[in-house]
Structures are given as structure tokens and as C-alpha cells.
Amino acid sequence: MNKTLRKAFVIVSICCVVLIALYVSLTVFITHKIKNGLTNLPDHIQLGYKNIEIDLLSASAELDSVSIKLNSTDLSTKLFSATLKTIQIEGVSYRDIIFKRKLSINNLKMEAPNVVQFSSKVEKLKDESKVKSNDSKKPTKIFLNQLSITNGSFKQYDSLKKEKLSAKSVEIFFNEVNYNAEKHKKSIPFNFKSFSINGQSLMAKTGAYETLNVKTFKITDQTVQFRDGVYQTKYSRNELSKHIKKEKDHFVVLFDEVQTDNYNIKELESGFLDIKISLLNLNNVNATIYRNKLLPDDFTHKKLYSEQLRELKHHLKIDLIKIKNSEITYAEKVKVGAKPGELYFKNLNATIANLGNNYNEDKEVDINVTATFMNQTNLKVDWSFNVNNSHDRFLFKAAFNKLPAEDLNPFVTPNLSIGLEGVLEETYFTIGGNKHIGAIDFRTRYDNFKVDIFDRETRKKKKFLSGLINLFIAKDSDKNTNGFRSARVEQVERDPTKSIFNFIWLNARSGLLKAMTSKGEKKD
Predict the structure, then answer these.
(1) How far apart are CA 179 and CA 323, in angstroms?
(2) What residue ranges of the chain have pLDDT lower than 70?
(3) In angstroms, rounded to a whole number, what is the distance separating the alpha carbons of residues 438 and 508?
(4) Could you give the C-alpha distances from 411 to 10, 348, 407, 492, in angstroms and in order?
(5) Which of 61, 116, 153, 339 has its CA 20 to 30 A from that of 496?
């Protein structure tokens, strides 16, 4: 090797050694700085880890066995804790940090985070100037090309230290996340291009008495899907009665799937939400609703659905809801020791269009239902109302085909102490009304109809009273033809302490009684 080559080799070797030494020194220096920064956090923030590795060439870092705890600033209350198997940061842009005061990361990965949140409000620092001066040293912009969380779990506790929300096997992916501290002051202080969240065993307390449990869930920027779920009263029927002072529905709602397509949620300047959903599907819903009428009545004013929607502070637009292959059972208990009376609807399919409070003034909520009522009767309902109408006007139409009167006895006998005989061959009625008054046009064709009155205590038939009642009821709608008996009843007054369904029942009962008595008009 000649002298020139030897000199070149020595220079290159020295440069390599210097570069390696510089790289090692920088790695040690930056690692030390990061460790120092992670150690010297405010007293109410605690962070621990087993090991940290930094690679300056690939601009990446990894922390193993990470633990994070956040307390209130006075250290009196636990707010948040988390443990993670690893946190990986890949592809940090040095140029963005130096020239743009922007932290840009290609990929941020969190493996097996176990997160616990405690219910308490984070205290605000009184000295806002300190907050501003500290923030001025930090990057005001953060960009994550990809954020991924795998095999996570989450629990949230309420103020009584009872579990309020939880989920397992959570997988989260966000794409192109942007955060700007100078512009984003809302509750969701970042935006993103797309995301997906899925997991298992979702549990959420939705009220003082209700819980939602879902076996699997998936949420993306386009769809929301819950599968194999139950929304129910957390107490049994008997136990609920011990916790409430007035009548309240006990319910169990099972469903195979709830799914939305093409939804959008954004925050308004007022702080409320603007929610738009193109399609909401509910498949194979099985609902059982029970009310203990032995408890005192709830005499609070009941608003119709149109008024409830109109007064909703959030903006809501659901273009179409589809309910498929579902069932509803409604039961009432009116006597100690007696079996609750039941009404049930099977093979229920329904559509609800334009549900919300953010449509044009002339847009109506339109509800169409078909179902099998009780054992064999086909039922069709068309119901419409305008949310923007301050009088809460509505139109309710129903049609039944052949209904054996005996099918109603499981409900009317324990609740009303009457028994029915005969067949309602066809029944049609239309109710028009508002929040105060209703009117009904009623038509029915029936055969051999009879009412039996029972003693409420002994359940024995009251023969004299039954005979007297039946004197006023036309036994058949028309003995010689297939004609109908019809009636119109005006001024059916609503009980404002009862629901819309009680109002519909009051109208239907008035129409049926008038049609079957001598006041009913025969029509061929």
C-alpha cells in the first residue's frame, strides 16, 4: 500500500471513528435527555418503564413495560392509569422539529395497553401565563401518519368507584392524525383521515338502571356495528320495584346486530353535536317490556315524540331506520299474585324515515310497521308527525285482519277483569290528533261478539252484569251481509301524564265501543 492510500485510509478510519463516536455520544446524550425529561415530570404525573432504546439513524425509539399514572394537581384524586407492553415510535422527522416546530411521526404503535379511567374533573391551573410559557417550548403541531393500538383493554369508573364503561381486545387504527394546539380548542382537539376501532365485551352504563352489553363491536369513519347485544334494566323485575318509588318500565332488549351506514358526527360551536346518519339497521330485535302497575303512578307530564325531538339540543338527522325480523312483548302486572297480562307482536318489520330535528319544516317523520299481533293477526300501522309543528299534530292509521277475541284475553282478563268471545274479522281505524285532543274514524266487521265481566277478587263471572253489557252490544256487525259497523268519535281527550300509546288506546277503545253499540252505523 503506497503512502497516499495509507493516508486516505487513516483519514477515512478517523472519520468513521469520529462519526461512530459522535453517533454513540448523541444517542447517549439524547437518551439521557429523554430519560431526564420523562423523569422530571410534574408531581401529579408518574411515568415508569423498564427499558428505552433509541436509533437516531432510523429516527425511532421503543419503551418497554411502560406505566403511566395521572392524579389531580393537588394529588388527592386518581384520574387515570395505564400499563403498556411497548410503545414504538418510528420515523421521526428531524427537519419538521427544527424548522417547523412540528412533531411528525410516521408510525406510533402501542401494544397491550391496559387503561383505567377514574371519574373526576381535571383541575385547571390558576396561573394561565405559566401554561402559555411552558407550551411555547413545545411543538404546537403534531402529525402521526399512522397510530395503532393492539390488544388493548379499557375501564372507566364512576364517582362511586363502580364500573361505568369497559371493553376488551381493543384494536385501534388512525390514519393521518393532525393536532394543532393553536387552533383546536374543542373537546376533540385533532382531525384525521380515517380510523377503525374494534373490540369485544363492551359494557356501558347508560343510566341509573340501564346497561348495554355487546359481544363484538366495530367503529370506523363510515360505519358503526354492534353484534350480539343486550340493552336491559340491570335489576330483576322484583328488585327494580324495591329501587323505584313510581311506575317505571323494566325491559330486556336483545339484538343480533345494530349497524349504521354513512354517518357523520361533528361538534357545533355551541358544544352540542350535529349527528347525521343515512341508514340505521336493527336486525332480529327481541324486546320484553314490563310494568308493575301496583306501584304509584308517575304523574309527570309526558311529551309526545315530536316535542321531545324538537327540544333536543343536539342536531339529529336519521334518514332511514330499518327494523327487521323482530319481536315485542308488553306485560302489565295489576294484581298481587296474578300473572301479568301480555300483548305481543311477532315478525315485526318497520321503517322510520326522517327521524330528527334538523329537517325542512314540511318534512314529516314517517313510520310504517307490519307485524303478527298475538297469535295470528296481521297488523299494519302507518304513523306520521311533523317535529316542527308546535301543536304536535299526528296521524295514526291501523289495519287488522282476522282477530279472535280470545287472543286478547291474556291481557284484558288480568288487567280489566273481562273476557272476550267472537271474532273481529276486519278492523280499520284512523286517528288524527295533537297533544291535547284526538278524533277517530273506526270501522269493524265482526261475528258473534260477546263480553264477560269477572269479579276482580274471585275471578268468577258476573252473569247479570255480563248480560246487561251484552244487551248494548250488537252481536254481529251485520247478520245478513259482510257489511261493517263504523263510528266517528270526536274530542277524545289525552291524559298528559300518559304516553302516546295510552292516547291511541283511548281513541281505539272509544271507536270500538261506539261501533259495537246501537250508536254504531252499519255500512255495506
Answers:
(1) 39
(2) 1-42, 120-140, 181-189, 415-416, 456, 464, 466, 479-482, 518-524
(3) 10
(4) 101, 19, 9, 23
(5) 339
